[in-house]
């Protein structure tokens, strides 16, 4: 009887601790998700921070393509949005939410800038994960170009 009581109390304590950890979200898969920004070749993407207060994704963005860009715009395209290539570029780039990176000034190769991109739909809950792509539109040698520059995963903080 003493043997059963000792192990019974131990099992009860373990069950209570596991229940508390489960209710705190320790076993939630999204809690294990890290923050990353993986840039395509020729681009730089560093330090993604997703602010739940503004709904913006802040990254350090750069290009190392060897060319000078003008009229640069950057876009965050949610992973659930299908970006298909059409004659005029990816359809997702028609979204109104963008960040003018340079305006009328040149964005030279090797240069980096910190930009803030609106996330749609935005979350107001800390810990909510987003995943998507960073697209850039720019003019190079008089031609309007579109590029998928990075894949981003971040949690709201």
Number of domains: 2
Count of β-strands: 10
The proportion of residues forming helix, as a percent range, comes to: 10-25%
Which CATH class of the largest domain? Mainly Beta
* Tally of DSSP helical segments: 1
Major pleated sheet: 5 strands, antiparallel
Strand order of the largest sheet: 1-10-9-4-7
Q: If you consult CATH, what is the topology of the largest domain?
A: Immunoglobulin-like
Find the structural class using helix and strand composition.
mainly beta
Radius of gyration computed on alpha carbons: 22 Å
Please identify, by name, the CATH architecture of the largest domain. Answer: Sandwich
What does this structure look like?
The protein is mainly beta and 157 residues long. It has two domains: 1-32; 34-155, Immunoglobulin-like (Sandwich). The protein contains one helix and ten strands, in the order H-E-E-E-E-E-E-E-E-E-E. The chain has one helix at residues 2-23, and strands at residues 36-39, 43-51, 56-63, 70-78, 85-86, 89-90, 99-100, 112-118, 129-140, 143-155. The protein has a five-stranded antiparallel sheet, with no helix packed on it. Strand 5 (85-86) and strand 6 form a beta hairpin. It is elongated. 22% of the residues are buried.
């Amino acid at each position: 009887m003493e043997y059963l009581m000792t192990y019974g109390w131990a099992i009860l304590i373990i069950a209570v601790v596991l229940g508390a950890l489960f209710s705190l979200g320790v076993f939630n898969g999204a809690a294990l998700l890290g923050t990353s920004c993986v840039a395509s070749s020729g681009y730089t993407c560093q330090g993604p921070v997703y602010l739940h207060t503004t709904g913006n994704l802040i990254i350090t963005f750069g290009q190392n393509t060897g060319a000078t860009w003008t009229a640069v715009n950057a876009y965050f395209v949610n992973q659930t949005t299908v970006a298909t290539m059409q004659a005029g570029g990816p359809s997702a780039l028609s979204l109104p939410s963008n960040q003018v990176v340079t305006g009328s000034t040149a964005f030279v190769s090797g240069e980096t800038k910190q930009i803030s991109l609106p996330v749609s739909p935005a979350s107001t809950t800390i810990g909510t994960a987003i995943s998507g792509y960073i697209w850039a539109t720019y003019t190079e040698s008089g031609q309007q170009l579109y590029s998928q520059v990075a894949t981003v995963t971040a949690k709201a903080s």
